[in-house]
Write the structure tokens for this entry.
Amino acid sequence: MLAPAMRIFITVMALIVLAGVGSATWLMTRQPSVAQAARIAAVLESTAPPGEPAAFAHCASCHLHDGSGRPDGSIPRLTGQRRSVLENKLYRLRAGILRMPVMDPFARTLVPSEIAQIAEYLSDLPAAAAPSDATEEERAQGALLYAEHCASCHGANGEGQDELFASRLCGQYAGYLNRRLAEVAAGTRGDADAVMQDAIDAVPVDDLRAIVAWLAAGNGCTSP
């Protein structure tokens, strides 16, 4: 029979996991604002820009032709993401090693040449800073915290690393970064390894928010 302290611990952990899953579900299912909906409609109704691979049509239905996703963080920005990271994720989705219900049906139809074309196209698109309400003081603090906790894997400026398949985080939407960090903390992020889990567990929530604020601002972004 479990001791009272252990029962309380298990209950608390279960509530944390449920909260993380609920937050992710809400973000993925909520409707965009009027302004966002207009921007999404305009991009989807426009003609695919020169150089866009035919296979990217599947991706554009969510990530848009310009790869910009949604500023609320429900869909990440893919522009400027490292080619190795994009290819690795698409191959893992295609093989069923990584499960993402929204993307699975599309990824499994891709052949290796299409994966290469999509990854090259997105990695070559110009990246930009994401909207952020953080103050300069918060961003400065975030830069110091990022250097301490994240730079060894994701690069000095959040540019990522090919050798580790570590994503480019610089210029990514704050809403997306906060959601992903919450999922890692709750244990619901399927592609987060033990190193990432340990790193997140060691950082207070307020410090994580400061790191996100610095990353989203795009200060110091370098090309992948």
